[in-house]
Amino acid sequence: MIGKIAGRLEYRGTDHVLVDVRGVGYIVHVSDRTLASMPAVGGAVALFTELLVREDLLQLFGFPTMLEKEWHRLLVTVQGVGAKAAMAILGTLGPEGVARAIALGDAKAIQAAPGVGPKIAQRVVLELKSKAPAVMAMGANPASTAGAVEDDVIEPTSAPKKAAKPDNSAAAGRAAANAEALSALINLGYAHGDAAQAVAQAAGENPDAVTGTLIRAALKLLAPKG
After folding, report:
1. How wide is the angle at C-alpha 111 spanned by C-alphas 83 and 204, nearest 5°?
2. Whose CA, among 78, 101, 148, 211, lies 20 to 30 Å from 71?
3. What pTM, to 2 d.p., does this model score?
4. What is the DSSP string of 194-205?
C-alpha cells in the first residue's frame, strides 16, 4: 500500500498530477480543490494517498491531509459512490462541508458535486449519518488536519522556490471546536446523530465560534420545542 508520496511536481492535468519521486513518476488523481492549492510545476509536493486496485487498473488518489483521506474512504463505502465521485464531493465541499452536509441531512449540498445525482446524494446522507461522527472527531487531532510533510524531497542545486502552503490553522481550530462540542454533547447523553446535526448547524451559523459557544448554541437547538 502506498500511503504517502513526496517529490517534485512534473505535470498538472485537469484531474491528476505527475509527481517525480527520486526519478520515478507517479500519476496521482486529485480533486479540483487540491489541484488549485498545489504549487507550480517544479515545486515540491507531498500527498497522502489511497491506492485503488482493480483487476485491470491501479490508480492513486491524493489528499492534502489525512482527514480528507479518511473522508474519501468513508464516502466510497456508500453504494454507487466510486473513488472519482468521492473526489468530486470533496473537491466541491471540502471535508468540513461534507461533514456539515451529512450532519444536517443536506442532500442538495452533496448533489452540487459534478456527476452526483439526487439518489446518490440522498444515499450518502442516509448511510453515513451514523458513521460520520467518528471521522468528524478526527478533526480534533492536529495531525489529521496537517498537510503531508515533504521530508524526503531531495533539493536540486537550483531548486525553484516552494509555493506558499495554505494556512490550515484556522480550519484545524474550527474542526477541533466542532469535535470537542460534539464530544461534550454525547457525554451529556445526546445521540450521535442529533448532537452532530446540532453542532453542524451551530457552526454553520457562526463559523468562528469557540467550543463553549458551539455547545450553548447546540443545546438551544436540541432543547424541546414548545
Report:
1. 105
2. 211
3. 0.67
4. HHHHHHHHHHHH
Give which of 35, 46, 31, 47 is closest to 11, Cα–Cα: 35
CATH 1.10.10.920 applies to domain 4-64: no
Alpha helices in the chain (DSSP H): 32-37, 66-75, 83-104, 107-111, 118-128, 132-138, 142-145, 169-187, 192-205, 211-222
Q: pLDDT tens across 112-155, in order?
A: 999 999 999 999 999 998 888 888 777 655 566 666 655 544 34
In our burial notation (b when 16+ CB lie closer than 10 A, e otherwise), range 49-79 reads bbeeeeeeeeebbbbbbbbbbbbbebbbebe
Phi, psi of 168 (to 5 degrees): -95, 0
Q: Which three cell numbers stand for residue 100?
A: 456539515
**Using the 8-state DSSP alphabet, how is residue 30 labeled?**
-
Domain 169-222 has CATH 1.10.8.10: yes
- CA gap 19, 79 in Å, rounded: 31
